[in-house]
């Protein structure tokens, strides 16, 4: 009696499945690649499957080109012309004259210096205070929800509200801060009207307003630290400070690097709170580079020169960002 041919080949006559080796060699009925290299002997859909993601990518590419690439290219071209907001001198090619003027303009360097000073005053406290606040909450203070709310809530306020409130606090005669100083026998301070205090006042406002975001990042990172590390350290007799320096801070290294990069970039782009609180005064002591670009382009109507200054600032920010990323990457290695 002749045997009945089966799909699985001779090995399927006795009811057994093809061996793993036969399946790996692409034997029909197995799960291995067939002659065209596709698993299971099923032919690939070719270009149809490879192009299936384009409908999802095209909308992003359209917005990316229209709202980023095109403005960047147009701004670069404008920086090489004598474009004016009034329309005089439009499309007049000036070459590198605007860039030459920018590097020799004393007000550009003063504004860059103010921006760097503000970045130093604000970035370091915003990293350190956020870390301390996150550690305090993470240790299990009573009423954690109220602490988290109070630390993060100021970050949700609009800049106009923040500057309005702090402007009243800084008011020389009736402000709360000077009232408290006078109550203990100290003369009032011109918080935003004296050059030596103005930038410190803006940095203090910024610290209160934006530290909640960094606090939230640190708190999330602390909650992701494995508990078994602390348990092992406790069994070895490590105290709270030893666990902090040997476990917590090393585990937060990546988060600290991220926060430092984001904070420096945010501080370099400062504009809103300074413009609303001090208008860049007194005597230009708090005017950042972005406010100078704004004044040059929309007050003095020199769009071409303002574009050139903005691209100089963009190059500086790019160099600093790459340097920071390289520094923190090297430390992680």
Question: Can you describe what's shown?
Answer:
The chain has 333 residues and is mainly alpha-helical. The chain has 15 helices and no strands. The chain has helices at residues 20-24, 47-50, 54-78, 97-104, 106-138, 144-152, 159-169, 176-183, 195-223, 227-235, 240-251, 253-268, 272-277, 289-299, 303-332. α9 runs antiparallel to α12 (253-268) and α12 packs antiparallel against α15. The longest helix is centred in the middle third of the chain and has 33 residues, at 106-138. It starts with 19 loop residues before the first helix and ends with a helix.
What's the quick description here?
The protein contains 15 helices and no strands.
Q: Which word captures the global form?
A: globular
* Poorly predicted sequence stretches spanning 5 or more consecutive residues: 1-16, 18-32
Instruction: Round the mean pLDDT to the nearest integer and report it.
Output: 84
Distance between the termini: 72 Å
Structural class: mainly alpha
| Main sheet specs | none
- What is the rounded Rg? 31 Å
How many helical elements? 15
Structure summary, number of beta strands: 0
% residues in beta strands? under 5%
- The assembly state of the depicted protein chains is single chain
Determine the fraction of residues in helical runs and give it as a percent range. 55-70%
The SSE order reads HHHHHHHHHHHHHHH
Main traits of this protein?
single chain; 333 residues; mainly alpha; 0% strand; disordered N terminus
């Amino acid at each position: 009696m002749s045997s009945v041919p089966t799909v699985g080949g001779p090995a399927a006559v006795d009811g057994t499945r093809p061996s793993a080796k036969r399946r790996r060699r692409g034997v029909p009925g197995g799960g291995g690649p067939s002659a065209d290299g596709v698993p299971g002997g099923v032919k690939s859909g070719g270009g149809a499957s490879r192009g299936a993601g384009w409908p999802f990518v095209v909308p992003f590419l359209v917005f990316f080109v229209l709202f980023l690439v095109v403005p960047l290219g147009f701004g670069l071209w404008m920086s090489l012309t004598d474009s004016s907001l009034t329309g005089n001198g439009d499309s007049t090619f000036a070459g590198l004259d605007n860039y030459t003027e920018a590097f020799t303009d004393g007000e550009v360097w003063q504004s860059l210096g103010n921006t760097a000073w503000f970045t130093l005053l604000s970035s370091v406290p915003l990293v350190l205070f956020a870390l301390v606040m996150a550690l305090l909450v993470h240790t299990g203070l009573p009423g954690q929800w109220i602490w988290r709310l109070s630390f993060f809530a100021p970050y949700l306020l609009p800049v106009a509200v923040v500057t309005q409130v702090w402007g009243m606090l800084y008011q020389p005669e009736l402000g709360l801060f000077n009232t408290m100083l006078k109550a203990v026998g100290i003369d009032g301070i011109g918080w935003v009207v004296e050059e030596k205090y103005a930038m410190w006042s803006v940095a203090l406002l910024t610290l209160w307003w934006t530290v909640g975001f960094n606090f939230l990042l640190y708190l999330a990172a602390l909650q992701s630290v494995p508990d078994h590390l602390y348990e092992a350290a406790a069994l070895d007799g490590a105290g709270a400070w030893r666990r902090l320096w040997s476990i917590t801070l090393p585990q937060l290294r990546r988060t600290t690097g991220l926060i430092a990069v984001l904070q420096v970039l945010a501080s370099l782009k400062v504009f809103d709170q300074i413009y609303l609180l001090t208008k860049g005064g007194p005597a230009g002591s708090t005017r950042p580079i972005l406010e100078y670009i704004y004044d040059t382009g929309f007050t003095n109507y020199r769009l071409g020169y303002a574009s050139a200054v903005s691209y100089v600032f963009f190059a500086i920010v790019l160099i600093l960002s790459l340097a920071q990323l390289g520094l923190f990457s090297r430390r992680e290695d």
